[in-house]
Write a structure and sequence with these properties.
55% of the residues are buried. The protein is mainly alpha-helical.
């Protein structure tokens, strides 16, 4: 039997002196273990996003999307340590954003965290750092097939500071205006999904359309459906840490969040698949995976607030609305290549509104401490207004702020957002990474050149015909120009 917890009554900002005190006595080891495990599960979602995005794209830009999502972890993790956590979760934060009292994790150790008294500051900081990382990774998928890597890396640091940290502060910091208003968001409907979805829409707008947009040139199927399925599996598993971990305790509320997560994902996948079958008479694996992610996105804000039966409604509504939302990009004339806004932006909005309707006080109190008034289903209709205000403000701030950030970055010499037309034809893997998701040289030799490759031929696809038939003529002129420039 574990020893009884010692009430926290320290005045030292770090939570005590570890040389003279046992700082573990204030916390249940089960709560710490579950939150640590959830931290690792959320990290697992990042390669899931990379594989999902990569599989949706064309072969010649597949690796660049995995690279950019993994780089998001590196850049954002440093930013979060440097000042991101302080800007989002400092105890002396304002209604919009925090201060630098915890810059460099200063005084972040064993005191009860802002998020929950059941886990210490340091654990809460690293857990929330994974949320910041996955949000940036979701947003930067917008660079697909035509965005340069260097300006994207610069964008990651700036965007996480100005956009994500502010929205996380006003949503989850008790001092934030949404939190004080009464808005509820269990695991990131607005800070993660609406913000990343609207940022991706803005990034797609600022980049412009891909070469050949609106013609048969971009009428292609995802190049690797198996990779999409693998990415979905990573995301589905990792989302248990994302949602159930947001209980910040090993409690019945975490269990309810896990149940809701799985139900919404399952129903969302089936719903999307059925809608696609209605039109194509094919059981689309990509459609099922897209529906699973849509269901996961929608249940995110409500997973720790709504009863299990309502998760089925979340899945149906999310699968349907996100499926139809894939048409929005055509109406807007924006080339959102990976439908990030349709799934994450619209899915997050749907989830926020449904949470406002189905939220139940008894579900929130399953952790033994959280008290809410409930949602529309229990007569607390004003909750829907709170959720709507949160959603619209998150979209407007992220979309508008992203456009401004990208506009300014694009003005800096050497940081032009868009790759050249030559780079688009060659592919982002060759032009920006210099490595490939597959043995691209062998593919070109065997499929395009009929197995003939002379010893003095270049080993790089930029110097030979494109493996994509309709791009051969343009690629040849690029190669000739490349040879003349040597």
């Amino acid at each position: 039997m574990s020893s009884p917890l010692v009430p926290y009554n320290e005045t030292i900002p770090t939570g005590g002196d570890s040389l003279t005190q046992n700082l573990n006595v204030h916390y249940e080891s089960g709560d710490i273990a579950w939150t640590l495990t959830s931290t690792a599960l959320v990290l697992l979602m990042v390669p899931g996003v990379g594989f999902f995005y990569s599989g949706l794209a064309r072969r010649k830009s597949a690796l660049s999307l995995i690279w950019v999502t993994m780089m998001a972890v590196g850049v954002t993790s440093f930013q979060w340590f440097f000042w991101g956590y302080s800007l989002a979760f400092s105890r002396s934060a304002g209604k919009f954003i925090g201060d630098l009292s915890h810059i460099g994790f200063r005084d972040v150790l064993a005191a009860p965290s802002v998020g929950s008294e059941r886990i210490p500051d340091l654990l809460f900081a690293v857990y929330q750092g994974m949320f910041a990382s996955i949000t940036v990774a979701l947003a930067v998928g917008a660079v697909a097939e035509r965005g340069r890597m260097l300006p994207c890396v610069v964008f990651m640091f700036i965007w996480s500071t100005i956009i994500y940290d502010a929205i996380a502060c006003w949503t989850w910091n008790p001092a934030g205006w949404v939190a004080q208003m009464g808005g509820i968001d269990f695991a990131g409907g607005t800070p993660v999904h609406i913000s990343s979805g609207s940022a991706a829409l803005a990034y797609s707008l600022m980049l412009g359309k891909r070469r050949g947009h609106g013609t048969h040139e971009l009428n292609f199927r995802p190049h690797n459906v198996t990779q999409i399925i693998i990415g979905t599996i990573f995301l589905w598993v990792g989302w248990f840490g994302f949602n159930a971990g947001s209980a910040l305790s090993a409690s019945m509320r975490a269990v309810m969040a896990a149940v809701n997560t799985n139900l919404a994902a399952s129903v969302g996948g089936v719903t999307w698949c059925l809608l696609d079958y209605r039109l194509e008479r094919k059981w689309s694996a990509v459609g099922f995976c897209s529906g699973v992610v849509a269901g996961l996105v929608a249940i995110t804000p409500g997973s720790g607030f709504v009863p299990a039966w309502s998760a089925i409604i979340f899945g149906v509504v999310a699968g349907s609305s996100c499926n139809y939302a894939t048409k929005v990009k055509f109406f807007l004339g924006i080339d959102d290549a990976l439908d990030i806004f349709a799934v994450h932006g619209i899915g997050g909005f749907v989830g926020n509104i449904l949470t406002g309707f189905f939220a139940a006080d008894y579900v929130a109190h399953l952790d033994g401490s959280t008290v809410i008034q409930g949602g529309g289903l229990t007569g607390h209709w004003i909750q829907l207004c709170y959720q709507l205000a949160d959603s619209v403000s998150g979209f407007a701030y992220s979309f508008g702020g992203t456009c401004i950030i990208l506009f300014l970055i694009n003005l800096i010499p050497g940081l032009g957002l868009r790759a050249s037309e030559e780079a688009e034809v060659i592919g982002m893997d060759d032009a920006e990474i210099g490595e490939f998701a597959y043995d691209f040289v062998e593919f070109t030799r065997d499929v395009v050149n009929g197995g003939e490759l002379l010893d003095d031929d270049s080993k790089y696809s930029a110097d030979r015909d494109s493996p994509i038939p309709h791009e051969k003529a343009f690629s040849s002129s690029v190669g000739d120009e490349h040879q003349r420039s040597r």
